[in-house]
Amino acid sequence: MKEMKPIPFRHRPKGLTILYEDRDIIVIDKSSGLLTVEATYEKEKTAHHILTNYIRKGSFKSKKQLFVVHRLDRDTSGVLVFAKSFEAKENLKLQWKNVKKKYVAVVHGVLTEKSGTITSYLAENEDYEVSSVKDSRKGELAKTRYKVLKEAKKFSLLEIELLTGKKNQIRVHFSEKGHPLVGDDKYGKKGEPKSRLALHSHYLTFRHPHSGKELTFEAEVPVFFKGYFDNR
Question: Rounded CA gap, 53 and 214, in Å?
Fold first, then answer.
């Protein structure tokens, strides 16, 4: 499978890094603070908008479209894939349950169980807050597998595998477990120093929508994650 020719510098997108591109997909390393798609309060500073302009090479007449396959929260960084055709998007959507999604996160505290799977039913309220509910009819099944990679006195570095992909799933599961993510201003520890969210989409493995070949993409873990474990 052949990658596209290098894009002239003037057309390269700003605010994100392209990890891979061919005729069917674009895989990027999304920076923290960048929305995946537009919201009511932000139309242009989104990964989707930036990449749509990029594939159109600045031509207003271009009809080229970019299709959303999955999303990352605004403050989550890391691997994000878009499809360049409707057919590629549909193929990726169909296989999405079997796609391997590995994250790295820094959470508060030291976990008693160093590995395990968190399972609950998640529901969203009128204030767009997600939480676990006991009634399976009122929520969607969410499963999060994790293992501890490193520990300090007050923090743990986790590798997390999403077995389902529900909104805010990782953040809610660890908050409810008593180990909220560092920098989580929605589900996190009240009164903690301001920090970016310590959640990063590290690896994504899926089958190419055209060739069927298994591909794995990696986005390097941000340096600040390691700072919580230096001399602590």
Answer: 28
pLDDT digits (tens, 9 = 90+) for 99-152: 999 999 999 999 999 999 999 999 999 888 999 999 888 999 999 999 999 999
How many other β-carbons are positioned within 10 Å of the β-carbon of residue 123? 16
- The answer to whether residues 26 and 81 touch, using CB atoms and an 8 Å cutoff, is yes
Phi, psi of 34 (to 5 degrees): -100, 125
The tokens describing 12, both together, are: 């390269």
Q: Domain coordinates of the chain in residue numbers?
A: 9-227
Tens-digit pLDDT profile for residues 89-99: 999 999 998 99
| Active-site hit among 73, 75, 135, 184 | 73
C-alpha dihedral (134, 139, 140, 144), degrees to nearest 10: -40
Question: 9-227 — its CATH code?
Answer: 3.30.2350.10
Does the annotation count 73 as an active-site position? yes
Lowest mean per-residue pLDDT among 51-60, 161-170, 174-183: 51-60
The radius of gyration of the chain from alpha carbons, rounded to an integer in Å, stands at: 18
